[in-house]
Amino acid sequence: MSVITHAPIIDTGTRLFGVFGDPVGHSKSPLMLNRAFSEKGINAVYAAFHIKPGTLKDAIAGIRALGYGGVNVTIPHKLEVMDYLDEIDEAARRIGAVNTVVNRDGRLIGYNTDGIGYVRSLIEETGCHPKGKCILMVGAGGAARAIAFALAAEGAAEIVIANRTPEKAQELAQAASGYGAVTGIGLTEVPVVMERADIVINTTRIGMHPMVDETPIRAEWIRPGMLVSDIVYNPRITLLLKEAEARGARIHSGLGMFIYQGAYAFEYWTGDTAPVAAMREAVEQALGA
Ligand code: NAP
Predict the structure, then answer these.
(1) Which CATH topology does 115-253 take?
(2) Looking at CB atoms within 10 Å, which of 26, 117, 253, 258 has the fewest?
């Protein structure tokens, strides 16, 4: 059992928030968001709820009935939750997934903060803006989808999505192409795109446990000066990032995406600026980073 060191005073004015997921026991969101509330002196608490498949509709009804301020929604509920909301933000509709629900006077509104969280992290942590850049994304899963739309919205000159299953890359490229120049390819074509890419982003599971000794691209394809970004954040510095640094590239870890998706959720819920440094400290402590 975890030890509460600074227990918040919970009274009738306390606003309630949480995360719905399955599994959810590993989530660092409660530590991060409770730290944010306490840092800002906001009377609110954030808990983790293990919502099993088949029970999401009731759980969302519970938000309405109990007057929760909002929730984050994670795997496997990000798509299904859209069926139970009153309104879905335009960007979340395009992405086709919701990770943040805001209860605005009884109306439940869905947002997606994953892609915009990634972009804010990229800009704030590296100073590199996607506008006008050639970006290679490896992977075409749920996270890649949110990131591709957000990068296109920021005015990337070219986005190339490479995936083990090329059809999924082409499908995502097709969906995002209305917002910028986006193409989908198979992994065999990656070396050619690496020659012109300014930014390369791993959005696959490669590098995460148990694939910690694998990388999605070969080290010799990495050019000095290019920016290599990995959305895997456990381990915080993946083998890909270690190899990229050794090749003289700049690196960007996925921890920032996690922190800033939470920062946007905090800001939608409270209308206040998120205390990002404190949130980062809470997560880094929890991960032993
Ligand atoms: P997902 O929807 O299941 O997609 C997984 C992607 O990885 C697909 O493109 C899949 O290719 C590819 N892939 C998996 N194993 C592979 C292998 N052995 N070789 C080549 N490609 C492989 O997963 P997701 O939700 O997008 O998450 C992807 C990763 O991002 C996870 O590691 C997750 O922890 C991380 N993530 C981080 C954050 C953050 O805040 N930093 C947020 C979300 C996710 P196929 O299509 O061919 O199967």
Answers:
(1) Rossmann fold (3.40.50)
(2) 26
